[in-house]
Amino acid sequence: MNENLVFPVHNPPQKINSQIALYAGIELYILRLDLMHPSVNGNKWFKLKYNLLEAQEKQINTLLTFGGAYSNHIFATAAAGNLFGLKTIGIIRGEEILPLNPTLSFAQQQGMELVYLDRKTYQQKNTKAVEEELRQRFGEIFLIPEGGCNLNGIRGCTEIIPNTEQFDTICLACGTGTTLAGITLSLKREQRVIGFPVLKNGDFLRLEIENLLKSYLASNRYIPGDKSLFWELICDYHCGGYAKVNDELCSFKQQFEETYNIPLDYVYTAKMFYGVMDLLQKGYFSKGHKLLLVHTGGLQGNYGIEQRLTGNN
Ligand SMILES: *Cc1c(COP(=O)(O)O)cnc(C)c1O
User: 181 near 172, Cβ under 8 Å?
Assistant: First the structure.
């Protein structure tokens, strides 16, 4: 372990004093995973945790994973590898663009070896053939799928919400649904989880999440909750699709940040908060409800979106 780096720490939920929530008779709390650590933060830390521990246990000292050029997962894996004293290889979708953007430049500074894969081969990354090729090329590697979406990833996410009992509903943004699966498995009594997919046509995620839950339950891994598994998806707040933004989202984000002094990322958390605030205004939640919104991090990715918005890219 690199002793100069601090280990990620969990902080308790904070109350958000929102007029909209007050008016709706709802208590609103936020869990700031973005504050856990300067670089290994958000849900990505939880998804990495048991992967890192398994690699250590198996004495494999190289992690290999996949992501786009602005990936929060690439960023966190590079930093976590450095923290744990593991070598990291990042397989990046598409061609190399120089100078490196801040995400990749940070990853490289953390010691990650960046390897570019053309988009077509990248699509095949989960096939045995590509995996074999990577193992041939890089020797002994501990492979983590894109976004940390595996059973170790789910297990880590069961640790995201401590003392869950006090909340009725947990809200979070969904990409692959791994985080939602982990949180759902950690819940007790009749609590429910609402996921806000950030991709267009997010309905397809239902089946994926069911499959994630099924394989986790079949794997005999630790389950802290009571397996009641109440979760649902609200697919209306993708704002145009993955990494897309619209004017409404941008002005919501700015206003939210100014009002509550809590930074959001465009790709995930802004969309979820936007959705929740809209639902609150529409009277979606019953009075007396306690809501916990999970800030899953991802702030490092704002640079890429802002470059695009200001036309510098
Ligand atoms: C990756 C990511 C998510 C989505 O997590 P999944 O487990 O893939 O659903 C949500 N928020 C942030 C900030 C992320 O980086």
Answer: no
Of 208, 231, 234, 308, nearest in space to 266 by CA: 308
Residue 136 CA to ligand 1 centre (angstroms)? 30
Closest by Cα among 184, 185, 186 to 195: 184
Question: Is 246 within 8 Å of 239 (Cβ atoms)?
Answer: yes
Average pLDDT over residues 145-166: 93
Q: What is the pLDDT of residues 120-150, one digit of tens each?
A: 999 999 999 999 999 999 999 999 999 999 9
Closest atom of ligand 1 relative to the 176 alpha carbon:
8
Q: Which of 179, 183, 274 should be mutated for ligand 1, with most atoms under 8 A from CB?
A: 179
Ligand 1 site, residue 196, Cβ cutoff 6 A: no
265 lines ligand 1 (CB under 6 A): yes
In this structure, are 216 and 239 located in the same domain? yes
**Nearest-CA residue for atom 4 of ligand 1:** 175
7: in domain = no
Domain of residue 230, residue span: 14-39+157-310
Alpha carbon 52 to its chain's center: 17
Per-residue pLDDT of 236-258, as tens digits, reads 999 999 999 999 999 999 999 99
> Per the domain annotation, does 218 fall within a domain?
yes
Show which of 95, 119, 148 is a domain's final residue.
148
